[in-house]
Amino acid sequence: MKHAVIDGYGPGGAASSRAIYESGLSLSKSVAITASVVLMLLGAVQARAQEQEGAILNGYARSKVGALVEDGSYFIAENTLDLRLSYSSGDAACFANTVLYEREGEPALPELREAYIDLSGGAFDLRMGKQQIIWGKGDGVFITDIVSPKDLSRFLVPDFEELRLAVTGARLDLYAGAHSLELVWLPWFTPTISPAAGSLWAPALPFPITPTVQAAELPEMELESGEYFARYSYMGSSFDLSLMGGWFWNDTPAFAVVSKAFTPGVGLTALTVEPEYYRTLAAGYAVSGTLGPLVLRSEGAWYGGRRFQGNPLAFAVGYAERDTVQYLVGTDFSVAGYNFGLQFIQDIIVDHDDDLTDEATKNTATFVVAKTFLGETLTAEIFSYLGLDDGDALVKPKITWDASDALELFAGAYIFLGDEGDFGQYDARDGAYVGAKLSF
């Protein structure tokens, strides 16, 4: 099921963090190597960018280290170099964002996060290429934000801006006063990245026994496999409204039963499943406005033909197709210099069946409080997910100090509460982290 907060299941169960991250001792060496590379790259690219009229280079270098509270083992040990180059000339522009990661002492290949071309006219904008497309009004939840898939390989540990993946396609924006129409075509499918089997963040699969999971097949790269989205928006003086729709591939697969074995008197003794991507239809809204000191917002969506996992003895294919409704209501306000945000989110499965893994309704809330100190150079924030049905939660406190215009130092934690549910299943994964970020 694609929940409003997190999306889908990853194959396999969680393994010990020491078995996953065994290279923490190389951390100091990797930081030193990366710092040297960062300084050389910064000097080279900045000098080159200054030679090019209309070219702008910026980005950041960041080091981040985190350890589990339970045994002190690393669950974060990474260095990041994020380079963003833009160039504009008249009504045309281009942008490229490349990221280099080093995690647990192992460098990764450069990742091209975004690369696109913009063409602008008096009443339209056209963007073509690899891009992030952000919809919706929710903080930390994804209801009408249906275009760009997510990277949930490390659950909700990365910053929110790093969870969203780019998609390859074309986006056309048409404008008429306070009204606009956005049309999106994606010829190539990009799936959500779920936690790998045996990783620290792999949740339990929704089956009575541990299944054998076959490899998933992506949709064919052909014209008829394209995805289509549209959004109408109105921007008023006191409120804004958007209406959206889409015909697309669900970016998290459902598990289809390939084979199963049942032993009388024992029950299900063997199960093989295959992840399958499938088409779905969605229509929804998002609205926000002010009422006195309050900022009010809401969004909701109907999804047709979603696949929900169920008892493989009751559903031969392992799932049932059901329509679903998701919505949120929320508010932001300030009191005595503290900024607060509250949201209530509900998922509803239409025509629910008791043999489905998910309950008929799912209720979640989020809470955030933030305040700045020391001339707005120090920011303290707590963001929390609250599972109202299972009594679980994820609490994310963070402190950020802007030591200078370019240097940011930060520290935070991930605290999981409860014994079950989306967050309670990670109760033994509490961790704390520190880091530094140099922007340029």
Structure, described:
There is one protein chain. The chain is mostly beta strands. It has a single domain, classed as Porin. The protein is 8% helix and 53% strand. It is built from 4 helices and 22 strands. The chain has an 18-stranded antiparallel beta barrel. The chain has a 3-stranded mixed sheet with strand order 9-13-12, with no helix packed on it. A hairpin with a 3-residue loop joins strand 12 and strand 13.
CATH-derived architecture: Beta Barrel
| Strand segment count | 22
Compute the CA-based radius of gyration: 23 Å
Low-pLDDT runs of 5+ residues are 7-40
How much helicity do the residues have? under 10%
Derived from helix and strand composition plus strand pairing, the structural class reads: mainly beta
